[in-house]
Structures are given as structure tokens and as C-alpha cells.
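Sorry to interrupt, but I need a hand with the structure work. Go ahead and set the record down below:
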Amino acid sequence: GDPAVQSTGATALSKAMLSRLITEPDLLKQLVVAYFDPDTADNAQLRQSLSYFLPVYCHSRAENATRMVHITCSVIAKLATIREAFLEEVADAEEEEDGMVKLSAVGNMLLDWTDPRKIFGFAEAAGAAGAADGASQTHYLLAESILERLVTSQVSKEEKKVLFSVLGRLHMPAGGCD
């Protein structure tokens, strides 16, 4: 519960993930959820650390962006649940809705973090078959993940709106993927 411990732990985990000592997707998911969670809104040091780490992590390697793609739908689902609970709590307390990021903003950030054009090495290899070891495939994988989520799961109206919005703005390089 201590903000200093939270930010120190997140920073240490971020550094371990950037250096590829830790590659666990569930830990990445927890960091992303913590970044958007209204409970951490007052922890500026944690938010600042994660606002630097998350884009750098995703844009530094295609495998990191792919890892983010695999957790994107579950992050949006988790945050939709948190948002519902937060809005109920806010309605009960008659407070303002300032502490929780809108799901559309979450979708935009996740879309940006997984954009294949921003992955290191993609521009140089744009015409090459191996475009930065799978960098060109991230949004194809995200499209597949979103479509699977929409077809196989109970999805709230707000979550569905965000997923369709993200689906419509994916960048899919010419040539397809494997």
C-alpha cells in the first residue's frame, strides 16, 4: 500500500523486463493495469515510471510488442471491470469521475504501443521478409485477438465499442503475415 514501495517495485520490475531477465506476460499485464488503475492515480512516481517504461518496452523489440498484443484484450477487459466498479463507487459517493482513464484512451495507448511502425528496426526492414523479426505482425495478431474476444466472450457494451474502435485503426503492412 505504500506509494514509494509501489513505485520502487514497478521500476525494478520494469528494468528487469527491459533487460529481458523477466518475460512473464502476467507481470506485464499487472504493470499496465497498475498504470491505469484509479487506486494508483495519486502515485505520481509510479505513473511517471510506467509512462516511460511501457512505450520504450514495446517499441524496443518486436517480441515485447507481441507480448503486449497478447495481453491487450485481457487488460481492456480487466480495466472495463475496474471502471464499472469505480463508476458505481463514484455514483454512491457523488464524486467526480476524474480518477479513472476512459477505456477509449486505454485502447488508443495500447494501439500506439503495439504499432509496428514504431518498433525499432521496422522502418529499415519494411520491405524485407523478416521485418524486424515479426514487427510487421503485431497488428495482425492484435486483430486476431480482438476478433476472438468479440466472438467467444461476453463483452460489455463499452468494451465492445473500444475493441471495434481499435480494430478499425490497426496498421497492417502490405504483404500480410505468417
Q: What stands out?
A: The mean pLDDT is 88.
